[in-house]
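WARN  no MSA supplied for this record, continuing single-sequence
INFO  ligand: tryptophan
INFO  echoing inputs
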Amino acid sequence: MQSFRNLPANVIQDQIGDRLQITYLTGPQVSFTPEEDGQDVIAGLTAAQKTLSPKYLYDDRGSELFEQICTLPEYYPTRAEISILSQYAPEIVQITGPCELIELGSGSATKARILLDAYQNLGGSLRYLPIDVSGGALEGSARELLQTYEQLHVHGLVSTYGLALANLPPSLLPFRLIAFLGSSIGNMPPEECQLLLRQITQALEPGEYLLLGADLQKDRAVLEAAYNDRQGVTAAFNKNSLSHLNWRFQADFILDQFQHLSFYNPDRHQIEIYLKSLVDQTVTLKALDLTVKFQAGELILSEVSRKFDLVELQQDLQSLGLKPIQAWTDGDRFYSLLLCQLQG
Ligand code: TRP
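INFO  complex generated
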């Protein structure tokens, strides 16, 4: 977690039209200051198990590649989640009634549209509060939404999740639903995940809702194919984080000297994604004044994607006061969407 001293000074209100408001809780350019930002790279690449923060996967090229991953035949999670949402959104909004929609990690807001359509069919006001660290993506998708939905009001928060949840603007509708989709919960270590779920419970009033997307445990071959596609898009996506380090920190990673590697760890119920050094080599990251040695075969951990047991997940949520109201899955039972309600 980044720290935000002087927070009030960073809070900038940006009124654009009367239906769009964007609040920057994080300075828009903060994450591009190498002095502040490269510290995690130094820590990660000098650790015994070398690691790279997954955020380096997502520069412009990385975001494009990830969009492509979502359309691959082997990568089922996005398709499964969208099909569950499309099928059950009317049922979800029937249960919650009219709600403000808060979305953690809104990106292009494709999934939000499915829920907004359903809320629109219920009638009444429509309000959407997207939370994303990328101000550009947030504003772009918000403007497109406002063109589609004439009754919609959007208040975006450019922020990390914890900070946004602690600083939500006052509710304008009687109820709220926080959506956390894409099984991003699986990309967080368990402690971080517990913390975020606590922050969610603190942001909600009793009776309000969490809609959580979670990828489920399944046959190893299906999982491994999803993270090792035949066209090599996943490999390009993973290796792009090295290009990202090259431009951002004046590094000299030679991409051909690293290989994408991912496999299922059945003891931990998680996909582990690595970059493997193919040779003994030394890499320099000039802007960070850092030189890193790699041995042939050495691994850099780039991402973990945990897979859930639906019953266990429901128990964990229940013990945090988030009572599972309903769980929906796709026909293959690959993926699940859980609606929980905060208990009083
Ligand atoms: N959130 C995605 C997931 O866990 C991230 C992802 C998909 C990913 N494919 C990847 C991350 C390949 C690194 C490499 O499913």
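DSSP finds twelve helices and 14 strands in the chain.
INFO  checksum written, moving to next record
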